[in-house]
Amino acid sequence: MAAAMSGPTQVRQFFLSGQEQWVAQAMSVAIELCPRGECRPSLPDVIDMAGRSIISETEDACSMAGLDDVQSETLMEMSRRGIEAFTKACGMVMVEEIRAGRAEPDWGQLLHRVDQVLPRTLHV
C-alpha cells in the first residue's frame, strides 16, 4: 500500500481505482458471512457494522503503512465511496423486491442481485 500510494501517479491511480470496487465487494462478503438464524441482526445493522469495520481497518492500514494525511484521506474517501456504492445497490434491489411483493427477501438472492446492480453504482 505504501509503495503504491508513494509511487508514480499511474501506479497510485491504478491502486485507488480498485479500492472502491474492492470495498464494495468486501461489504457483500461480510454480509454473506453473517450468521443465519433468528438472532441475526437486520440488514441495515449488518451493513453499518461491516462499513464501520472496513473504515476502521483502512485507518489502521494507513497508519501502519506510514501514509501521510493526504494519502490516508484519499484512500479513506475511496473506501467510503465503495461502502456508499454497495449501500446504494442494496437500496435499489430492496426497492425492486418490495415492488415485487417480497418485503423479506432471502439474503443470498439479495446479494446476487446486488452484485448485478453494483457496477452501475460504482464511481469507477
Give a description of the structure:
The chain has 124 residues and is an all-alpha fold. It is built from 5 helices and no strands. Helix 2 crosses helix 4 (69-99) and helix 4 crosses helix 5 (107-121). The model has no long low-confidence stretch (mean pLDDT 86).
Number of strands: 0
Backbone structural class: mainly alpha
Q: Please work out how many helical segments DSSP would assign.
A: 5
Order of helices and strands: HHHHH
Percentage of residues in strands: under 5%
Q: Report low-confidence residues grouped into runs of 5 or more.
A: none
**Biggest sheet layout:** none
Q: What is the quaternary state of this protein?
A: single chain
What distance lies between the first and last C-alpha atoms, to the nearest angstrom? 19 Å
Mean pLDDT: 86
Alpha-carbon Rg, integer: 16 Å
The general outline is elongated
Helix content: over 70%
